[in-house]
Amino acid sequence: MSLPHSPWVEAGGDFAIGLRPIPAAAWLEGGEDDPAGRKDPLIAKSPAIVWGETPGSRPGQAEVLALIDAVRGQQGGEAGLPPLLAAARRVPDDLCLMEPRDGVWRLTALSLCAPSFFTAEAALGRSLAELHAPVDGFAARFGGRLERVFAGLRPDLILERRNWTVVNTDALFTPDSAPIRAEIPYIPVQEAGRALHLRVERQTLRRLPATGGALFTIRIWRAPLETLDQDPERLAAFARAWRGATAEFRNYKGFASYDTLVEGFLRARGESYSVNEV
Ligand code: HEM
Q: Quick check: 278 pLDDT over 70?
């Protein structure tokens, strides 16, 4: 299956805020039959990795559950479950509740069953600046703008952004990059199209008007690199984004360890330009 999003076409190989308004009807994409069936075993086995809440976040959590139930035509949480967790079991997306605490936007609760190399435990309670500290150059380029986006978020506005990376797994649950990256040297170059995957995060942000917080959703899509064969324009755009990626973007996403494999993949498809000629 090819991906429903191809952010490398528009954004190329650089970090971007890339927020755009979407209609309410397009808020959550759905498309997974049984999200609870995937999430429940993770919640049972690795609770600290996939779930966290801070004291005082239950009213905001309840507003998230009400919003999600409103679009799904459902009602009420499961007895005994925190409302955000009940909400997260009903949708494919991961749910992050951001709330102002002493004038600073903080992550006060989250359900994170498809983490891209981070954990609920490490992220809970962090401010926007702290969450983005590992992203090279983030504070200087985007820090102020991101604060303003959150401060000015109108209740009737839903924003969407997408990002992309390349990883050598199709797993959704990837809290730690180390065991995945350790496999890279064993991938034969002729297998690159099947072993490497495009991983796209589709994120949305909306205000919670009653409690004053904001809900950030993360939906992961992924497909083998070889699905680019179905669309020559997406393939060419990928080659341009890969080869034109900024040093910060490449470094943050660990692209150097994939260069031989991706170049082999591209050259086998007539994208003959070599990284060594950059
Ligand atoms: C809608 C506003 C936001 C924007 C524009 C934004 C932007 C970014 C960007 C540019 C990156 C680098 C990777 C990429 O290209 O996506 C990133 C990474 C990240 N963002 Fe955000 N972000 C936003 C909201 C949030 C929120 C609310 C959270 C709370 C969970 C969050 C958590 C993270 C994390 C954990 C990373 C990865 C950092 C790491 O590598 O450890 N972001 N974000």
A: no
The CA 205 to ligand 1 mean position distance, Å, reads 12
Shortest-distance atom of ligand 1 to CA 16: 10
Phi, psi of 192 (to 5 degrees): -55, -40
Best mutation site among 19, 54, 104, 132 for ligand 1, i.e. most ligand atoms within 8 A of its Cβ? 132
**What's the distance, CA 233 to chain centroid?**
24
Whether the predicted pLDDT of 216 surpasses 80: yes
- 132 CA to centre of ligand 1 in angstroms: 6
pTM for the full model?
0.95
Provide the residue ranges of all domains of the chain, joining segments of one domain with +.
Answer: 7-270
Cα atoms in the 13 Å half-sphere on the side-chain side of 42: 24
